[in-house]
Amino acid sequence: MDATTVREQIRQFIVRDLMRDPSYQLTDQEGIITGGLIDSFALAELAVYVEKEFGVYIPDPDLTVAKMDTLDQMIARVMRDQAT
Amino acid sequence: MRLSSSTRAQFQTLLDAHTLTHLDDPRFAIVYLSPEDPPLMVSRREFRDACMQYAAALQQAGIQSRDLVIIAHTQNLESIFAFWAALFVGAIPSMMPTLTEKLDPEIYMQSLEELVKLSGVKAILTTAAFQMTLQERIDCPIYSSEILRQGDRENFQYIQADSHEIAFLQHSSGTTGLQKGVALSHQAVLNQLAHYSDAIALNSDDVIVSWLPLYHDMGLIAGFLMPLIQGIPLVLMSPFDWVKSPVMLLKAIHDYHGTLCWLPNFAYHHCARRIRQRDSDGLSLESLRMLINCSEPVHHHSHVLFSERFGVPLDKLSVCYAMAENTFAVTQTPPGQPARLDLIDRDVLEQRLYAQPIDETTVNPLTQVSCGAAINGTQIRIMGAKGEVLADRGVGEIAIKSDCLLTEYYQRPDLQPFSEGWYLTGDRGYLVDGEVFIVGRSKDLIINAGKNVYPQDIEAVVNTVDGVHTGRVVAFGVPDEREGTELIAVIAEVHSDDPTELQRIKSAIRLAVAQKTTVSVTYVALVNEKWLIKTSSGKIARGANRQKWLQSQSLQ
User: Fold this and answer.
1) Which label site among B140, B248, B321, B382 has the fewest CB atoms less than 10 Å from its CB?
2) CA pair distance B218, A44, nearest whole angstrom
3) What CATH number has the domain bearing residue B503?
4) How many structural domains does chain B have?
5) Domain C-terminal end among B161, B179, B196
6) Residue B177 has pLDDT above 80, yes or no
């Protein structure tokens, strides 16, 4: 799956399922957790989603605000393992 | 000898804890788990010695009997030693939350400053890093663990409190950030632990596993004081680590043969939905005797979800109704039995305030989960609107009277907790054959992921957001099946209809709430000036606006 598709799918998942606000225009560099858009609880949920949809397992130590706060960071992490 | 209703007379204060009086017992006092480091095993003697060392330092610093000492630590062993050290010198400890990366430091400092001023705090115990930050701002002696570790045990003198004196405070937030310190005496805490241990048939084979924060009644009593006082091994981890990695809890139960664990309802969902199969493969929860659901409304479907995901039978999923004002538990379902379910008619409940039982064939019944019967020493009654005592199935406010109630709200004579010896809980419910069923609350309190949140506090924050019409904001809770807790919704009146500006206001509201409170907003609705319903006196009607919003959501 290419990066653009992954990006759009994750963006949709965040605004629809986690933020419950499908009309929200989430940008690529916006702080999703530091910006208060979702609770840090939701990172664990994102990990479940990413494994189910893209077959990428992100171990718990990588599920931190520092490493997974923006769409850009998330996409880079998913694509890294998808490529290998 | 363990503390129970029959041995209660032989315990005077918390310092009679089994862990302290049986130092050579080979079972560990605490195992502390963190994701990065190997488990830290603390023997009973190591526990006593560390507390004594800290206590000696407190004494050398001039902390005296009855002084209020605040512990504002990241949860770790140091905060535990500091808490017990304060007890060792006869002082009154209180655990407070620490500053998190999400929270605005200014808000945290203000609230701590206010607490120091209003409650006459004599010292704050914290980490070295945080000591520097606090010292610049707070007018009160602040000691770091580095200083406390240098105490000289040889020169330490135990100061025993009297059993009726206050042992510690549990802080619960009130509206507009004013802290209420629930003051509990040694005898109240010992009464609670004796009765509650009987209710769960606590025994010497038990091992308690907890991720709960120590400033919360469930974490403080069930997940911290009970194991140490009863000499039951405690396996502890930080709530921050558990939230990120919920499988840690299951692994701890597996590794240490955990038998007891307390969780708020949302945690059943967090574990069932967010632990990945490959992470939980091979972990056994067979050793569990009881998983106890407490601190927020209990849903049967949450138990079913957890049970199906991890294979824990429903008769091990029990329920407790608790509050800091009663030290902790008010009720508990019996071990080895599933919590009783009561199917009732929604319309009759709403219109006649009566829990009319109906059978499964009726359309859309409301499934109520029993919280069990009152523990020994606690009486419960249900009060009607005119102050009358209601019969079984009558729905009203729950009132309690017990031998483990708070002494007072610390230094708050303006808050009178009792009415003729009864404490009015603010929770609404009914009784059936002595078992309590909760249906809601008298006040607008929101319980989000086990945390009590006052809508007024959220509204006050949203009112300050640029672009929001000040005073035209309403916040409320929305029960969510998927999360197993109440999510927070905000409706704010704005004067713009420009999409870019609306998006900016939405983001600003979410950010402000995240930084200035301990929770996050899920739903943000921006409305025009005609939308919000006001009362005849011009006040924003929270309940009516909540109803209106819920209806608009169901139409979508």
Assistant:
1) B140
2) 24
3) 3.30.300.30
4) 2
5) B161
6) no
Residues B126, B91, B180: CA angle, nearest 5 degrees = 75
Asked whether residue B17 is domain-assigned, the answer is: no
Count Cβ neighbours within 10 Å for each residue of B328-363 and write b for 16 or more, e otherwise: bbbbbbebeebbbebbbbeebbeeebbbeebeeeee
- The pLDDT of residue B247 is 97
Mean pLDDT, residues B465-486 taken together:
94
From the list B101, B246, B510, which residue is nearest A36 (CB)? B510
Determine contact, residues B430/B315, Cβ cutoff 8 Å: no
Residues of B with CB under 8 A from a CB of A: 35, 101-102, 243-247, 270, 273-274, 276, 278-279, 449, 487, 503, 506-507, 510-515, 519-524
Sign of the CA dihedral running B320, B322, B326, B330: negative
User: Domain limits of chain A?
Assistant: 3-83
Q: What is the ipTM of this complex?
A: 0.89
Alpha-carbon distance of B490 to B522, in angstroms, equals 8
CATH no. of A3-83? 1.10.1200.10
Interatomic CA distance for residues B540 and B544, integer angstroms: 9
**Using the beta-carbon criterion (under 8 Å), do B274 and A57 form an inter-chain contact?**
no
Radius of gyration of chain B (CA): 24
Q: How many CB atoms lie within 10 A of CB A77?
A: 17
| pLDDT (0 to 100) of residue B176 | 47
Across the interface, whether the CB atoms of B503 and A21 are under 8 A apart is answered no
Query: What's residue B406's pLDDT?
Result: 97
Q: What is the pLDDT of residues B24-73, one digit of tens each?
A: 999 999 999 999 899 999 999 999 999 999 999 999 999 999 999 999 98
Region B456-467 average pLDDT: 93
| B523 contacts A21? CB cut-off 8 A | yes
> d(Cα B174, Cα A11) in Å, to the nearest integer?
37
Q: Out of B161, B184, B215, pick the residue that ends a domain.
A: B161
User: Does residue B189 carry a pLDDT above 60?
Assistant: yes
Is residue B20 assigned to a domain? no
Q: Which CATH number does the domain housing residue B122 bear?
A: 3.40.50.980
Buried-exposed string B148-185: b where 16+ CB fall within 10 A, e elsewhere: beebeeeebeebebebebbbbbbbbbbeebebbbbbbb
Chain A residue nearest residue B553, CA to CA: A20
Q: Do B102 and A34 touch (CB under 8 A)?
A: yes
Residue B111 lies in a domain: yes
Domain that holds residue B549: 446-555
